Structure formats: structure tokens, C-alpha cells
What does this fold into?
Amino acid sequence: MYKRFGIYTIVAIYFLILVGGIVRSTGAGMGCPDWPRCFDEWVPPTDESQLPANYAEKLTEQRKKKNERFEKLMTSLGFESVIHSSSHNIYENIYFNVTKAWIEYVNRVIGVIIGLFIFITFLLSFSYLKESKRIFFLSLLAFVLVVVQAFLGAVVVSSNLLPGLISVHMLLALIIVGILIYTVYLANAVQKPLVPIVVKRKLNLLILISMVCMLAQLLLGVDVREGIDVIAKEMNYVGRHTWIEKLDVSFLIHRSFSLFILATHLLLAYWVKKNREHFSSSFSYYAIVVMIVLEILSGAGMAYFAIPKFLQPLHLLLANLIIGLQFYVLLELNVRIKNYRVTLS
It folds into this structure.
């Protein structure tokens, strides 16, 4: 039961990442300028006439009070707050847009549902408390991180989408899904055929290099995405065909680095094919290569076709799927489970 529900939860998180990409590509991140409500309602209105005349100023004032409390909390914990009243445009008034409000509202509803999924996954992990405490405590950690993610989501909205916080919000989702992939793999408790050490060492090295490169590429992509957000806002979301040419050198590095990543994964696929008698299945390895090719094609599509809105969330989803599958392959190659006692072979 845990394994099956854990898989459902992982799929749901990836779906939420896709939805989050849609929110960002449509500029709906501040569709609801307050949190957890939307325009001070649990269900957003369908027309601006349903809101009070001074709603924008009222919601801005609420954000100021929330940010002051956040700054006090961070100071009390010994950290410097990333939110400052003089930085960014965190206190500009946000006005009602029915399309953006409902896109963001649906994103939040899905987020709440997935939070419940992760909580249920944690409850199901109690059945492994005797056999594998690791599954239980990692499931607990995933749930705690979801609570942190919800708090961070509130800060992101209160700061009017402060760029660095959006990236941390996305990376934390990647960590949560990684933890769940690990626990589901452990719960599977199936003995895998061992790979001869000479081959395994080379594969481990290739996979680790591939993962590091992909994580670096994801961070570069986040930087490019933030640059596009700034340019789009400065141009009032028009002239999409000129946004790419206004980006700095990080875009050129991001674009060129993709070819190196493809080369490392082609080498990985070659090693798997050469030693396929040691693998129960080579599907995961080849699937990574296919997804990287799709990732490169989607990136090229954005660069040459004025950043189509439908390609942005797809590009983000593929990057997260690749890293998740890389992590699964690393587990498959190294983790061996015998009677729920986990060892690294």
C-alpha cells in the first residue's frame, strides 16, 4: 500500500511542478496577492465588482504586516531576512485579473491535495516502523518539508515573487520528490542483480557527473527564467520575440552546456548497452537520453519561437523528471535490500 500510494504521490508532485510552470509562464504568480486566501476569500471572485473599492491597498497593507513578522522571525533565528522594504517591488498594488487569479487558485488547491497525499504517505509509513525505520523517518521528513514549503509559498506571495525565493521554492519540491523516490524504492524491497565492480565504478562516476551537470543546468535555467521574468515585466509582457536577445551570458552557457549533458548521457547509454547482461532492465538509462533530447528540443523551441507559453512548463517538467530518474538509476545501481535491511553494495 505504501509503495503504491507513494508512486501516486510522486506523480502528483511532478504534476504540481507542471502546474507551477504554467503559473509562471502565464504570469499568474501573483494572481492571488494574499495567502492562504485569494483576494481575502477562500474561493476567488469571478469579477472585480465583487471586491471592495480599496481592496488593492488593503491587501498591500496586509503584505507589509506579514513581511514585518517574517523579518522579526528571521532575526530571532539569527538569520538576515531576504525581504527588505526597499528591495524589489514588493509593495506595489496587485489588481484583480480573473484568469490569473483562478490559475493561481487551482495551483494552490492542487498543492493542498498533494500535501494531504504526503501526509497519508507518512501515516502509511508506520507499517514499516519495525522493519525499516529509515522509511518512516524519511516519510516524516518529507511531510515536515511540505509544511516548510507551504510557509515558503506564503513568503513568496508576500514578497511579490522575490526571484531568489521562487527558485528555492522549486528546488525544495525537487528535494521532497527525491526523498519519496528513495522511500518508495526501499519499500519495494526487491533484490537486484549485482553489477561487476569494474563496470559499476564507471557507471557510478558517469551517473554522478550526469546528475551534477543536470543540477547545474537546472540552476542555470532558473537564472535564465528569472532574467526572462524581469525582462517580461519591464516590457509589460509584450514583444516576446525580443526577450531572448536581451538575456545575459547565462543563457548562452545554459544553451551550450546542454550539448555536454547530452554527450555524457550518450556515453552512459553506451556503457549500459555494452554491459546489458548485468542489468535486469536498461529502460531507465535510455529513457533519460530520450528526455534530454526532448529537453533540448523544447529549449530550442523557446529560443527560436518567441518562448511559447506551453513550452515553458514542459521544459521545467522534463528537467525535474530527468533528475528524478537519474537519482532512481543511482539507487538501482547501489542500494540492495535484504529483509528490509538496507546496505550499499
User: Anything to note?
Assistant: The two ends are 27 Å apart (CA to CA).
